Amino acid sequence: MKKKELIKYLDNYLNIKDFEDVSKNGLQVDTIKKEIKKIWYSVDASNYIFKKAEKEEVDLVLCHHWLFWWVEQTLVWLAYDRIKRLIKNNIWLYASHLPLDAHNKVGNNIWLLKAFIRIFGLQKEDYKIEKFWNYHWNYIWYMLNFKKEIHISNIITPYAEQMQLIKKLYNFWNKKFINNIAFVSWWWWEALQEAFINKIDIFLTWEMAHHQIILAKELWQSILLWWHRETEKIWPKLLAYYLRDKFDLEIVFLDEKY
Question: Rounded to 10 degrees, what is the CA torsion of 3, 88, 233, 256?
């Protein structure tokens, strides 16, 4: 497939122009190659990922965590080493941050929510899905409202185990039964305030700084913390599978955790 065609399709499919983000979403590193046959997908962009991509002879790396932010940076030390490896081996790098968090078909948050629904066998009449928190004119995250309250012990443990998530629950509400959960692949303290204002029983997020946990306790806002990569490893696979089926591309996932 022609590179220009795939990049244009990805930009439109992910609506990257609609997001104000710290990441430079879209194509970050270009090469002289024109055709894309093999895609590598990973959560992160780093040298140990690019070394594997080099061995696999891939054409394009899709990642969630990027190399370039909305500020320019100098190409020295690790930045130079990473870009040099990509260009030398004719590997494109495409990044999507908030557009993938927000996507309603292959995004992180919607699939964390859908997995929750499937694992617990919830029927449509048991819940209602709503968007949660308008961030820079975009609704990126979701909340799940239950028609009947659910015991907290029946939710947290089996869900985390099946999703292979590292969990830490701070039940500051001290509730045994919950009525809703907000799924937020983020650590932003403003979202914590939003959860408190909207009376969210469980605020599910991936990491928090010490002062943010103190704030949660002060607000009596219960939070469920999961490790960053674990909550964001879903979308690269889903997007890659989607591109494989639509354009008959070869895909490979050899992500590495630390």
Answer: 160
Tens digits of residue pLDDT in 92-146? 999 999 999 999 999 988 988 888 888 788 899 999 999 988 888 888 899 999 9
Q: Which fold has domain 3-98+233-252?
A: 3.40.1390
Q: Rounded mean pLDDT of 221-229?
A: 84
Query: How does residue 165 score in pLDDT terms, banded at 50, 70 and 90?
Result: low
In contact, 62 and 29? CB cutoff 8 Å: no
Backbone φ and ψ for 121, nearest 5 degrees, come out as 60, 35
Homologous superfamily of 103-226 = NIF3 (NGG1p interacting factor 3)-like (3.40.1390.30)
Determine contact, residues 29/93, Cβ cutoff 8 Å: yes
For 14-35, give the DSSP string.
Answer: TTGGG---SB--EEEE--S--B
Place of tokens 């990049």: 7
Residue 217 CA: distances (Å) to CA of 169, 180, 185, 220, 234: 12, 19, 20, 5, 30
- Alpha-carbon distance 141 to 195, whole Å? 11
Show me where the domains of the chain are located. Answer: 3-98+233-252, 103-226
**pTM, to two decimals:** 0.89
pLDDT in tens, 47-85: 999 999 999 999 999 999 888 876 667 888 988 999 999
